[in-house]
TrEMBL record:
Gene Ontology biological-process annotations: tRNA modification
Enzyme class per UniProt: transferase
Similarity comment: family membership: Belongs to the tRNA(His) guanylyltransferase family.
Annotated organism of origin: Daphnia lumholtzi
Keyword annotations: GTP-binding, Magnesium, Metal-binding, Nucleotide-binding, Nucleotidyltransferase, Transferase, tRNA processing
Binding residue positions for Mg(2+) 1: 29-30, 76
Protein name: tRNA(His) guanylyltransferase
Amino acid sequence: MAKSKFEYVRLFEADDRCLPNTWIVVRVDGKGFHKFSTEHEYEKPNDIKALSLMNRAATSVMEEFKDVCLAYGQSDEYSFVFRKETQAYSRRSAKLSTNVCSLFTSAFVYYWNEYFPTGKPRYPPVFDGRTVLYPSNQNIRDYLSWRQADCHINNLYNTTFWALILKGGLTPAEAENKLKGTLSGDKNEILFSQFGVNYNTEPEMLRKGTVLVRRKVPVALPNGGIREKSQIVQEYVDIIGDEFWNTNSHLLTVT
Ligand code: GTP
Ligand code: MG
């Protein structure tokens, strides 16, 4: 069929294919979730319902995008790691980030009332999305370590900050002042000596964030037998040290 004279405008579309043989990470992050969490009365410092909804939305992304081998989430963000050799959308960066971000956002709204009894959010939540490439296994491990260290630092701070306010009766400004210049040991000490809280026994999902991976899980068959089925499971584990990567070496291996 003859092409229209307008066809040439297609040439203005830039080729944004990701470099071959590199880890592709798509990270989504809630826009203005400081406000969104307040408007929806998220519990402070952590709302298990909200974090579980994030995990549900991320599971939807992994169900759809089979080349995501691992996802990591904390607070209002989730990172999706695509296999190094993925050919999804011919590795086109915008296709990957927009599809992941769009599905994550719609799943967040779709499953909202399974976690919040309010029926629907008060206004439509927004997530941004970006694609970042990491060439080496060390780089992708360092990326995930960076996000988990961020989770740890923020969660220790927020746990102490809100204990000082909710249990200690300080104003937010007083709590902020008290924490200025403190190291993690100081915050642990405040939590323990003033509020009897041993930070190390706080729920692991809050201290470590959530890792989503595929695992073979035994499922019961109607005839009484058992079959192994691949399922997306949530784990609240350390991904900074070597142990997780030694026991899950397949995740970093090109297949
Ligand atoms: P942009 O991402 O730049 O749009 O800003 P943001 O307001 O989303 O802040 P950011 O992504 O840096 O941080 C996420 C914010 O979400 C936190 O600062 C909290 O205010 C809020 N948040 C995330 N998870 C929870 C939670 O479980 N409970 C409460 N109370 N707030 C949360
Ligand atoms: Mg945000």
